[in-house]
């Protein structure tokens, strides 16, 4: 079968397009005929070896895919041959990736594509959408009426955070370029702030004493500024880091107000968290949410080029590789 794989970690030049044996499935697995995969920054970290995880070589790259069920294991009863499905947690922790014509997926990591939902839009969305869903529901344990501040809100994760938080009844405050304010409003932001101006002064102007949760999707906002924006017992969710990988903040003021900083990456999510997120994502997608990404479609043969484009920040759109 055709696959994009590596024989060792390293640069995007290590990616090989070639033939590999079709995978065998176990009793709890499903063989999926892949139609498309998305390309994520974490895929480049795994390939480069900068994200340490168990890899079996030759290693097929990629973690998200959509496709059709080709075969089911003896213990699998949730899927039938021909079912349209998606997955978003392959390609790390000992599991082969998805950028191959066929992939053996554990049944508990596989989900149905809802009727009427475009598979290409879905696969482009699920990484950032699942990140947002698990962050809100499991890391923050947010509830209706809470206030969340989303910084860098016009990006892929930011727009998903807005939509999910809005539909869950949270008050959503966003920072972005002023040119994106209409977009923020359309996605469900209750208050759009200019990222170029002082966050503290803008919050004061709108009589906002504090927020319950902060997510900086850009890694460019000073940690102390975000701590200052929190209510007592508020939480910052860290999903990225500043370029110099350093933060400074007033430790005494931080702990004496019971504030918290929680790091989160999707690679450490549990099966139950993935399942909960998938249910929520499928529901919201049926309702027309989370499918708004600008997408560039490329053939599987461009896998190396696609990863290089992400690493060099030469593309803003979501990249989807198709068979």
Automatic annotation (TrEMBL):
Classification via SMART domains: PKS_ER
Keywords, in A-Z order: NADP
CDD domains referenced in this protein's UniProt entry, alphabetically: zeta_crystallin
GO molecular function: oxidoreductase activity
The organism's place on the tree of life at top rank: Bacteria
InterPro entries linked: ADH-like_C (IPR013149), ADH-like_N (IPR013154), ER (IPR020843), GroES-like_sf (IPR011032), NAD(P)-bd_dom_sf (IPR036291), Zinc-ADH_QOR/CCCR (IPR051603)
A Pfam cross-reference name: ADH_zinc_N
Domain Enoyl reductase (ER) as annotated: residue spans: 10-321
Gene3D superfamilies assigned: Medium-chain alcohol dehydrogenases, catalytic domain (3.90.180.10), NAD(P)-binding Rossmann-like Domain (3.40.50.720)
Protein name (Swiss-Prot/TrEMBL): GroES-like protein
């Amino acid at each position: 079968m055709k696959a994009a794989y590596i024989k060792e970690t390293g640069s995007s030049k290590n990616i090989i397009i070639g033939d590999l044996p079709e995978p065998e499935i176990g009793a709890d697995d499903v063989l999926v005929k892949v139609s498309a995969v998305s390309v994520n920054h974490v895929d480049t970290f795994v390939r480069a070896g900068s994200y340490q995880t168990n890899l079996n070589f030759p290693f097929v790259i990629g973690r998200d895919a959509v496709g059709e069920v080709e075969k089911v294991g003896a213990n699998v009863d949730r899927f039938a041959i021909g079912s349209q499905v998606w997955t978003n947690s392959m390609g790390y922790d000992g599991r082969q990736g998805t950028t191959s014509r066929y992939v053996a997926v554990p049944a508990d990591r596989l989900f149905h594509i809802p009727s009427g939902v475009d598979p290409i839009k879905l696969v482009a969305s699920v990484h950032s959408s699942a990140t947002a869903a698990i962050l809100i529901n499991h890391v923050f344990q947010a509830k209706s009426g809470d206030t969340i501040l989303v910084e860098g809100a016009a990006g892929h994760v930011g727009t998903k955070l807005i939509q999910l938080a809005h539909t869950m009844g949270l008050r959503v405050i966003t920072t972005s370029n002023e040119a994106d304010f209409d977009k923020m409003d359309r996605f469900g932001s209750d208050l759009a702030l200019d990222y170029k101006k002082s966050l503290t002064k803008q919050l004061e102007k709108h009589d906002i004493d504090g927020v319950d949760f902060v997510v900086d999707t850009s890694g460019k906002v000073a940690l102390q500024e975000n701590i200052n924006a929190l209510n007592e017992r508020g939480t910052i969710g860290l999903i990225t880091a500043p370029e110099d990988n350093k933060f400074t903040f007033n430790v005494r003021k931080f702990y004496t107000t019971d504030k918290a900083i929680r790091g989160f990456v999707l690679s450490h999510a549990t099966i139950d968290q993935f399942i909960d997120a998938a249910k929520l994502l499928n529901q919201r997608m049926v309702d027309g949410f989370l499918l708004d990404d600008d997408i560039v479609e490329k053939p599987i043969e461009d896998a190396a080029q696609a990863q290089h484009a992400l690493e060099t920040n030469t593309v803003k759109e979501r990249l989807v590789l198709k068979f």
